[in-house]
Amino acid sequence: MNESKANSPKESLANLAIDPDVLARELAAELLEDPLDEIDLKDLDSDALKVSRECDAGLLWLKQGHEERLQGLRVFCEHRDPRALPLLLPLLHEPCPVERMSAVYALGRNPWPPAVDLLLNLLRTDSNAYVRKATAWSLGNYSDAPVLDPLIHSLKNDVAAVRLWASGSLAEAGSASVENADSAAKQLLISLQIDIEPLVRSNCIWALGRLYGKLVESRKQELVTAFFQVLLQDVEASVRDEARTALTQLNNSQALEKLENLVEDGLLA
Fold first, then answer.
1. Is the Cα torsion angle 204, 147, 210, 216 positive or negative in sign?
2. What are phi and psi for residue 242, nearest 5 degrees?
3. Which residue from 18, 138, 220, 250 has the fewest beta carbons nearer than 10 Å?
4. Cα(79)–Cα(6) distance, rounded to whole angstroms?
5. CA atoms of 13 and 176, how far apart (whole Å)
6. CA–CA–CA angle 36, 169, 16 (5° rounding)
7. First CA to last CA across the chain, in angstroms?
C-alpha cells in the first residue's frame, strides 16, 4: 500500500511536530523497502541492542508529557514492541491531533486486536483528516478484523488523502478471503472510473493488481477491461502508465497479446 506507492522521498521523523504529514510519507516510503536487504549480519547484535535501548526510552517517554510522548511515539512508529501497546491506546483520545495520528501509525506498526474498535471509530468520526488518513493506513494491517466495509466507505466518501490510503489498505483487507477480494475489487473498480484524483485512481489500479489472483474469473475479466479502458482513455499520463504496468504484471496472456497489438497498431508507443 502506498501513497501513490509513496514516490516521495524519506524525511526525518524528527520533523513530525512541525509537519504532521511527514510521518505519513516516511511510513509510506518505508513500505517500499525490505529492511532485511540492508542488514549486515555482523551488526545484528549491536543493532538489536540499539533498538532495545530505544524502545526502553520510548516506553518512559510515553508516560510523560506532550513533547516526550511525541518522542516515544516516533520510536514505536519505527519499532515493534508489545510492551508499548497498553500505553498507545489511551493516546487515541488525546486532544492533540498529532498525538492521535502518531498513536494510530504506531498501532499500525504494532497491530493489536483490542485497538480495532477504537481505530474504526476514529476513521468514522475524527474531525482531523490527517488522523483519518493514518487510520486508513493502519487498518490495512488488521486484515483479519471487520475493516473491509469501513475502508470501502472511506474510499467512497472521504477526502482525497484518506481515499488514497483506503484504496491501498483494501488490497490488504481484500486478501483475507475470496469474498472480501470481490467486495474490495467491486468498489475499487468503481472508484477507478469516477474518482477525480489521479493519485487515487493510480492506487486503485495498484490495489486491484494485488487482488487479481484472488478474484473469480468474471471479476478478473472486468478488471482487465477496466485497465485497458484507463490505458486508452484516462486524461492523466501517470494513471495510464500505472494501468499499462499493471497489465504487464497480471500473468494474463490475452492481456499481454492485446498490449502487443495496440503497440503494433500504433495506438501505444
1. negative
2. -65, -40
3. 18
4. 20
5. 32
6. 70
7. 29
For 149, other C-beta atoms within 10 Å of its C-beta total 13
Domains along the chain with CATH numbers: 1-110 (no CATH), 145-269 (1.25.10.10)
User: Hey, what's the cell of 80?
Assistant: 515493534
Residue 211, all three cell numbers: 487482488
Which residues neighbour 42 within 8 Å (Cβ) at sequence distance 6 or greater?
A: none
Return the ∠ at Cα 198 (arms to 259 and 234), rounded to 5°: 40
In SS3 terms, the chain reads as CCCCCCCCCCCCHHHCCCCCCHHHHHHHHHHCCCHHHHCCHHHHHHHHHHHHHHHHHHHHHHCCCHHHHHHHHHHHHHCCCHHHHHHHHHHHHCCCHHHHHHHHHHHHHCCCHHHHHHHHHHHHHCCCHHHHHHHHHHHHHCCCCCCHHHHHHHHHHCCHHHHHHHHHHHHHHHCCCHHHHHHHHHHHHHHHHHCCCHHHHHHHHHHHHHHHHHCCHHHHHHHHHHHHHHHHHCCCHHHHHHHHHHHHCCCCHHHHHHHHHHHHCCCCC
Residue 157: which of 136, 179, 134, 182 has the closest Cα?
136
* pLDDT < 50 stretches in the chain: 1-18, 30-36, 38-39, 41, 44
Choose among 153, 131, 182: nearest CA to 24. 131
User: Look-up: residue for cell 488522523?
Assistant: 131
Confidence at residue 24, expressed as pLDDT on a 0 to 100 scale:
57
